[in-house]
Amino acid sequence: MTTLQMDSQTRITPQDERRLLVVDDDERFCSRLARAMEQRGFAVEQATSVADAVAAARRDPPEYAVVDLRLQDGSGLDVVQALREADENTRIVILTGYGNIATAVAAVKVGATDYLPKPADADQIAAALTVEDGDLPPPPENPMSADRVRWEHIQRVYEQCDRNVSETARRLRMHRRTLQRILAKYAPRD
């Protein structure tokens, strides 16, 4: 009987593998995450677009899915909706580089199980996918700092305003020059 090495203490046999769909338009990230999740006992299928992910969901609904919120050809929320239509029991984690409350609420409303800001490591993702209903996953080892959360929020609003500094400053109730200084700096370290 073949076994997959998960860690030094746990072995998973192929019939115990859990089917996982990883959806991200960054092919390198998608491949790295797929390999990491395979090491944690998941049988992984990859998709790099909304169309590919929806087709995979309809063809053979997975038990688990990790979906990037922003994809080149649309929204990850469309993938979540297709996964829910294919199998309402699929456990779905949304990943995004732009973590904010509004998108987290939208993701949960369409059926996501959890929502994690990038960069999330494979252990965090596996914990979020496999947590028992009603339980909360453990807190992250290295959560984003308050400065990083603020910077991410400003970047998200800036992108939503089509990179218009004046409109972004107005919506954030911030002076335009202050916003320009913030945008000129690199992201704060976590």
Automatic annotation (TrEMBL):
Magnesium listed as a keyword: no
Modified residues (4-aspartylphosphate): 68
GO molecular function, one term: sequence-specific DNA binding
BP GO annotations: phosphorelay signal transduction system
Keywords: Phosphoprotein
Pfam families: HTH_8, Response_reg
Domain Response regulatory stretches: 19-133
InterPro entries per record: ActR_PrrA_rreg (IPR047772), Bact_response_regulator (IPR050595), CheY-like_superfamily (IPR011006), HTH_Fis (IPR002197), Sig_transdc_resp-reg_receiver (IPR001789)
Protein name in UniProt: Two-component system, response regulator RegA
